[in-house]
Amino acid sequence: MINTITLNPSLDYIVKVNNFKVDELNRSVGEQIYAGGKGINVSIVLKNLGVENTALGYVAGFTGDEILRQIKEHDVDCDFVKLENGLSRINVKLKSDGETEINGSGPDITEEDLKSLYRKISKLGKGDFLILSGSIPKSIPDDIYENIMKALLYSGVEFIVDATKDLLLNVLKYRPFLIKPNHHELAEMFNVEIKGDEDIIKYAKKLQEMGAKNVLISMAGDGAILITENGEALKRDVPKGTLKNSVGAGDSMVAGFLAGYLKNHDIKEAFKMGVATGSASAFSEELATEKEVNELLAKMN
Ligand SMILES: Nc1ncnc2c1ncn2[C@@H]1O[C@H](COP(=O)(O)OP(=O)(O)OP(=O)(O)O)[C@@H](O)[C@H]1O
Ligand SMILES: O=P(O)(O)OC[C@@]1(O)O[C@H](CO)[C@@H](O)[C@@H]1O
Fold this sequence. Notes:
- By secondary structure, this protein is of the alpha/beta class.
- It is built from ten helices and 14 strands.
- The protein has helices at 38-48, 61-73, 111-121, 144-151, 165-169, 183-190, 197-209, 249-264, 267-282, 290-299; strands at residues 2-6, 10-17, 28-36, 54-59, 77-78, 81-82, 89-95, 99-102, 129-133, 158-162, 178-179, 214-218, 224-227, 233-236.
- Strands 1, 4, 5, 6, 9, 10, 11, 12, 13 and 14 form a ten-stranded mixed β-sheet that branches. The chain has a four-stranded mixed β-sheet with strand order 3-2-7-8.
- Helix 8 packs antiparallel against helix 9 (267-282) and helix 9 packs across helix 10 (290-299).
- The radius of gyration is 18 Å and the shape is globular.
- Bound molecules: adenosine-5'-triphosphate and 1-O-phosphono-beta-D-fructofuranose (F1X).
- Residues 8, 10, 12, 36-38, 41, 91, 103, 134-135, 247-248, 250-251 line the site of 1-O-phosphono-beta-D-fructofuranose.
- Its EC number is 2.7.1.144.
């Protein structure tokens, strides 16, 4: 069983504005609304790649209803805790000359809601993967990811964690199967300036020493570096293509990596599939489809 947890899902409101100007009325030239949040994106891409999985987390209000409707439209199983109050957030992704994002803070989650989530994950066991992705709402204690992993420590569940700063650093002792910070997040975690691949490898290896089994550092259009469980450092460039929408590229990479790994447990194939899937999403308005991923895979060595 593969499960994703999105503690703070969103509706991503993608709005395109030509020559956006602050302090003026801008009119959009295109708008889309997609269910988002990192774990949900991972779930949708896994499903697109033929990997059955269940999306877990919290939803609230009419925005939560729309998030669930869209997840079901993607044919992804879901088992969210529905909050009694508040609204799932709307995250604004403004596309003009560059990409500007405003992510909401999300609804309040009570002790009882937390217990409901723990009840759902208590059924997981050996051979299952649990993907913990994204930020956590302010009302949840910030050791939630490590507590979830601690609760499942002897269950045999493998964890994938895509989070930043302490949220990520604090789970390393529970030996996640995979972590995927981007190179900016890596620099931020060690409070250093990263000047090139050598620095990336050096600090990624530190994360491995702290407990992570496989460390995948994404670098947007510059590809990715993987430190495998046996300490090998691998680098991949991205395939050629035109950037259309990078929102969810990192989540797609995580989904692609896992889908690739599940085929025959070959970590190099997983890496290749991760890069192809991240790029396929970056080259598409929506999240990558299997066809788009296969087209890029065919172009990669
Ligand atoms: N401009 C791009 N061109 C080609 N591939 C890209 C581009 N941006 C992202 N990708 C692909 O997606 C992967 C993950 O991208 P990135 O490093 O931006 O992740 P991220 O910061 O977690 O992204 P996000 O938070 O937007 O989902 C990259 O390693 C690459 O394979
Ligand atoms: O606020 P978080 O949880 O860090 O990130 C949320 C988010 O930006 O991540 C996804 C892209 O990776 C989007 O679908 C979503 O809006």
